[in-house]
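Can anyone check this?
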Amino acid sequence: MAIHLTKESKILVQGMTGGEGMKHTRRMLAAGTNVVGGVNPRKAGRTVDFNDRPVPVFGSVAEGVDATGADVTVVFVPPAFTRAAVTEAADAGIGLAVVITEGVPVHDSVAFLAHARRCGTRVIGPNCPGLISPGQSVAGIIPTDITKPGRIGLVSKSGTLTYQLMYELRDIGFSTCVGIGGDPVVGTTHIDCLAAFQDDPDTDLIVLIGEIGGDAEERAAAYIRDHVTKPVVGYIAGFTAPEGRTMGHAGAIVSGSSGTARAKQQALEAAGVRVGRTPTETARQVLAVLDAGA
């Protein structure tokens, strides 16, 4: 069991024939992901060979869906074309669009996310590493060789911290790891993943990684308090960040006590979440919770 992505998922790659698309399609295929096609209107009808695995290129997402039954797309197109790419995927009936592209204008994100919701398409990202259900499938750029299948669910704003916690807890393993992205507007939130992990019978514990700026973690804390019965361990990046500055991701803006790591820690702890001050301490908290429940 996993959330949003399983071994049955059939994946199209929009922008597969570009440099990043080629590199990460090769990595996804090597991990056993069922990549069924790429999309590039200028190269439609061609086939790209990935280590003796031929992958067809379609002229549109709709054509790819009709030919393969694809239900997931991974978007590697430049920022100026991302809105059109996600809109096209939603119009074609794709159930999950994973938008890796960073630097997407916020007004474009707002527009394509609203359109995707109307079409029933879940978007992860933009500006995200994607998601992985270890041993089953990976959609995006998350490394596949740093962990194994297990019973921890992970949701994170930060790609780098996603990888670090996956490695720190590699001996335990994960059901699914989701990098939701750190932009001010994203398609899938902490709360969306918390709800999915709560309903997943093969997830026993949830790790939530946040960062300074905004109020997403405070809202997640309220949701955990009211709806999540599984143990949750958290980490907030930015305890040493100076106030009043933009730090890292576009959404990480701190003003006074609003959006600080300390404020987020307090909200999560009030909801019963153990919060580590470093990734390694967070991993130790996870092991302590699992040991206590053994």
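Reply from J.R.: I decoded it. The CA atoms of residues 12 and 269 lie 40 Å apart.
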